[in-house]
Amino acid sequence: MRKPIIAGNWKMYKTASEAKQFVEQVSGLVPDASKMDSVICAPSLFLPQLVVSAENSPLRIGAQTMHEAVEGAFTGEISPVQLADIGVDYVIIGHSERRQYFNETDDSVNKKVHAAFEHGLTPIVCVGETLAQRQDGNTGSVVEKQVAHALNGLSGQQVEKLVLAYEPIWAIGTGKTATAEDANEVCGIIRGKVADLYSEQTADQLRIQYGGSVKPSNIEELLGMQHIDGALVGGASLEAESFLQLLEAGNDA
Ligand SMILES: O=C[C@H](O)COP(=O)(O)O
């Protein structure tokens, strides 16, 4: 039985005071970590403050990206050492918005995944196809290639610890959710690829999230699917009430 994991990705939303207020409001209401994992991935600017605000709560704090180097002349970037040092637990790697607007590639995703593990961070690795790739019937081959690249060189034990997020690009922020069956089918393809690359046991342990217009009204159906172990949520994670409803669904799954 894989433990559900619901992660909010706030993207470039909220001010520092709004972020602090949100975490103070939800932290006492987050389900126990023995039942599920609950994460907020916030803008880097707020991370130190949110780690402190969440310290007595099961809520964990994540970053939305990072550089793969330990340190260096990389203006504007944040390193895995810096994230780990302030108590961040998770980091999203290879989100489609990073791939599209900030030149993140399968190769840099792989380097960042290795760097995350070297410094004790849990990577949430995003993969997913464009609408054109889906319409051309290439969804399976696209996500298999992304998964193989992202995991290259990792041990089976590391793969069992990471989180993969399947996010069809055409469903992000559009209100169009993949049907639960379609999302489950692709998550099953991802699990099958991991079984080929590693073992059935590793594939069985791996947690796979679905992301793309997840909201309180559709999360239960998604979490009811065999291969979907959680959700990576943008818009619906911004309001405390809807985030808590998502966690409740995770806790009941
Ligand atoms: O990381 C989250 C995803 O990009 C999904 O965003 P969304 O829930 O606003 O569609």
TrEMBL record:
GO biological process, one term: glycerol catabolic process
Active site feature: 95, 167
Highest taxon in the source lineage: Bacteria
Keywords from the named record: Cytoplasm, Gluconeogenesis, Glycolysis, Isomerase
Pathway: Carbohydrate degradation; glycolysis; D-glyceraldehyde 3-phosphate from glycerone phosphate: step 1/1; Carbohydrate biosynthesis; gluconeogenesis
Molecular function terms, GO-annotated: triose-phosphate isomerase activity
GO CC annotations on file: cytosol
Binding positions (substrate): 9-11, 173, 213, 234-235
Catalytic reaction(s) noted: D-glyceraldehyde 3-phosphate = dihydroxyacetone phosphate
InterPro entries on file: Aldolase_TIM, TIM_sf, TrioseP_Isoase_bac/euk, Triosephosphate_isomerase, Triosephosphate_isomerase_AS
PROSITE patterns referenced in this protein's UniProt entry, alphabetically: TIM_1, TIM_2
Location relative to the cell: Cytoplasm
EC number: 5.3.1.1
NCBIfam families attached to this UniProt entry: tim
Subunit and partners: Homodimer.
Function: Involved in the gluconeogenesis. Catalyzes stereospecifically the conversion of dihydroxyacetone phosphate (DHAP) to D-glyceraldehyde-3-phosphate (G3P).
UniProt-listed HAMAP family: TIM_B
Family: Belongs to the triosephosphate isomerase family.
Identification of the protein by name: Triosephosphate isomerase
Organism: Planococcus salinus
Gene that specifies this protein: tpiA
